[in-house]
Amino acid sequence: MSNASALSSPLSEDEVLRIRNDFPLLATELNGHPLVYLDSGATSQNPLSVMEAEQEYYEQRNAAVHRGAHTLAVAATESYESARSTVASFIGANAEEIVFTSNATEALNLVAYSLSNASLGRGGDAARPYALGPGDSIVVTELEHHANLVPWQELAARTGAEIRYIPTDDDGALLLERAAAVVDGSTKVLAFTHVSNVLGTLTPVAELVGLARAAGALTVLDACQSVPHLPVDVGALDVDFMVFSGHKMLGPTGIGVLYGRSDHLSALPPFLTGGSMITTVTMEGSDYLPPPARFEAGTQRISQAIALESAVNYLAETGMGRIAERGSALGERLVGGLESIDGVRVLGPGTGSERIGLAAFDVDGVHAHDVGQFLNARGIAARVGHHCAQPLHRRLGLTASTRASTYLYTTMEEIDAFLAAVAEVRSYFGVVR
């Protein structure tokens, strides 16, 4: 089969079994059972190629980047910038539009604090249009992870702007008819998630971007749950900023990505300052480099970026369209199976909705933490709690839920084992007999 044909064919169960051989941790046991890892929405596992890429850097090219002219420094710099170019191509961006951060949370804070600094008059005339103050508004949604809510609350507190949100209905779907009243001429920023980390469902990006454009507002997209699972093209999405994390897409921890349109990055003042991001420093003041260097103060995330490049290559070689199709099938199996179990409430829309392979649920009469411990005893690793989305859980009448999240290495057999275990929870805790 040609490579093009392979990338257009479905990701079969046999191929998933072969893929699993690349992930050593998946072959281990948990509490005497074969590990069923259903927490990839929090942190995905790493293939050997990613671990080897980082190790190979330390063994052969470990040096500071953008700082030296010796052979090792040049090789390290070339590898680091190669990683930037690879990540940029993966999402349809230009290399100068990619800023490496420690994680997506830092990337969101970078945007928020840069806007805050612009509001203080930093950045000169170029940054003045980005300033916020009393009378302005920042809009988020009720779906947001805390990382895409708290930084905007803090920006509002620092600038006097008002924080607003687009509400959801009882199923967690955004009330777009209300959005038009929330996003108006006062709105300077509209920040929203691409895929809910609780519900696994996709938000209507085009409609939200249209509202922001009509209001003259910047758009900030949290793509932590979409870039690992779906083909993503920032040009097609037409967002101003987008963030995602390496550790959710087969990469290491300690690396995140900020995409920013070049005109915005060039106009905004920096967030962190120090070495590597300056042109001239005197005792009286400093001048800053163009982006992306302007936003990468200090020693860069060199080995992590190189490992992330390896992860991106692994995903691209597997085929993002195939990964998306597989995730959708896993999600349908999860949701359909959970809906068939008495006493289990799936959060969000049911089967048939566009989603990734993720589902959160509540078991009547049993706390989510107890559900998680029950699953863990059977070798199943799932997430419990509010998943850093307290407002959404509160809207849905809960304080916590259990979440199962899959990835390209998850088998249908694992989904069935998980569903069989969930079906036993209520009887085990004596809720039903």
From TrEMBL:
Q: Which GO terms describe its molecular function?
A: cysteine desulfurase activity; lyase activity; pyridoxal phosphate binding
Could you say which EC number(s) this protein's record lists?
A: 2.8.1.7
Q: Which UniProt keywords apply?
A: Lyase, Pyridoxal phosphate, Transferase
Domain (Aminotransferase class V) spans 36-418
Asked if the Swiss-Prot or TrEMBL record annotates the protein with the keyword Ion transport, the reply is: no
Matching CDD domains: SufS_like
InterPro entries this protein is in? Aminotrans_V_dom, Aminotrans_V_PyrdxlP_BS, Cys_dSase_SufS, PyrdxlP-dep_Trfase, PyrdxlP-dep_Trfase_major, PyrdxlP-dep_Trfase_small
Give a Pfam family name: Aminotran_5
Q: Which family is annotated?
A: Belongs to the class-V pyridoxal-phosphate-dependent aminotransferase family. Csd subfamily.
**Name of the protein:** Cysteine desulfurase
Q: Which organism is it from?
A: Arthrobacter pigmenti
Ranked from the top, the taxonomy reads: Bacteria, Bacillati, Actinomycetota, Actinomycetes, Micrococcales
